[in-house]
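A quick aside before the break. I want you to see a complete sequence-to-structure record at least once, exactly as it would be stored in a machine-readable document. Don't worry about memorizing anything.
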Amino acid sequence: MITRRALTTLRRAPLHRALSSRASAVLSALDLHSGRELPGVYDGEWGGSGEVLQSVCPTTGEVLARVNTASPAELERALERSREAYKVFRNVPAPKRGEILRQIREALAAKREALGALISLEMGKIRTEGVGEVQEFVDIADYAVGLSRMMNGRVVASERPGHSILEVPNPLGVIAVLSAFNFPVAVYGWNLALSLAAGNATLWKPAPSTPLCSIAVTKIVSGVLERNGVPGAVAGLVTGGKDVGVGVVESKLVDMVSFTGSEAVGRQVGEAVQSRFGKVLLELGGNNAAVVMPDADLDMAVPSVFFGAVGTAGQRCTSTRRLYLHSSIVQAFLSRLESLYQSVRPGDPLDSATLLGPLHTRQAMDVYHNAIDRLQKSGAEILTGGAAYRDLASPLDGGNFVMPTIAIPQEVDVKDPIWSTETFAPVLCVGVFDELEQAIEWNNGVPQGLSSSLWTRDIRNVGKWIGPAGSDAGIVNVNVGTSGAEIGAAFGGNKSTGWGRESGGDAWKQYVRWSACTLNFSDAAPLAQGVQFSNTA
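That is the input. The structure line, written in tokens, reads:
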């Protein structure tokens, strides 16, 4: 983030003169005019007079656009307008809300390729993953359309004659979504779709490094709301840095905060929201393990681990970071995996042939280098990778490209930071076991508990893995990698991952307030449990 004073000189040279044709084409397709500062606040009207964010392309290092963020006054107004919009939207019948979601789904699908390209440009993931991320938003909107007619309560039998008990869901209020850079569209989509179906207003505070994705999505969503006569602040946007995030989290106008990010920041968010008795949904670190048994189908397991560890340049919450191999298959597995690693080449994520894009920021490269340095100092064997790419051709020479790395530490000690710390980069640590019980103990021994994967063809192993003494993660897969979840099931993790659940399953129940309503339609008013409270003889 830079101040307006610091921009005085920069403004003398219009941004569009230096913008590459690849970037210009992507931005133009979504009506993002990079030659001027873009408004980064939407509360029914577009604005922004706070500090200025620069969106930087991780592939080339070029500045894509500058965005005006929310000032303190604009943030307060956005919060107030969100509350006002909620009071209107909560009275819209749920099936009508579903119809609005259907229209949002259609509008997103029409821009799927363009939005996918923008994700690749601004975040850095490869084109197919960018388009797939938009498809996640489309899919959860589809899901929420049906959900709008099925957000049911329950009828509970009463012990008292002439009584019934109802469990009733109602809209919760204002939902704040603080999303991370690595899924700059889908995570907001998971939250927005369920929040709208439930009758809430949603205020989005995106990662400061991906403001363009949030502006593009909000333009699409706001157009649908406007056509339906719905207040725009039902799906508001406030871009900015830490101060804006803190303002959202601490506001009593926000009923629930959904936060995706690091464990350290998630702890602060959770404490702040709980201190004012708000609701919080946390999606934090994921230090995910794949366990490969001797009977595993390596034709399936090796490519899946390769994608899990290298896809999105290791920047998914569900990326595979730990690999536990049975001692009898170590050489066979690693030789095949190493061949895949050595075949991958960095490239422009907008090129459909590219499998390896850049890390998102220079700071992410520091995280990568620190992890490699720690491994080397511990005596770990670096099987492949272990350095940044050098001497890449222009324009990739300005990007954040690092070699996917396989490391074999000297031992498995889940208390050691090598194993217990999530490294948000393509670094895979390998350990060797003899018994499944040992691998499960290692899988469960770290603070995080997001995703896990077992590769086997033995049903007895499956039973152990998914049972009470098995993996303690929120996602427990068999013959499926740690990464690439579908929207139909609830997504989230346990332990320091935060216990939050988003997307499908019963996740919608977090976005409503529940009431137990006892109805008496009899001619008497008996107390429960047979209690008698009367001074009559």
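Two observations worth writing down. The first strand starts at residue 38 and ends at 39. The chain is about 35% helix and 20% strand. We'll return to this after the break.
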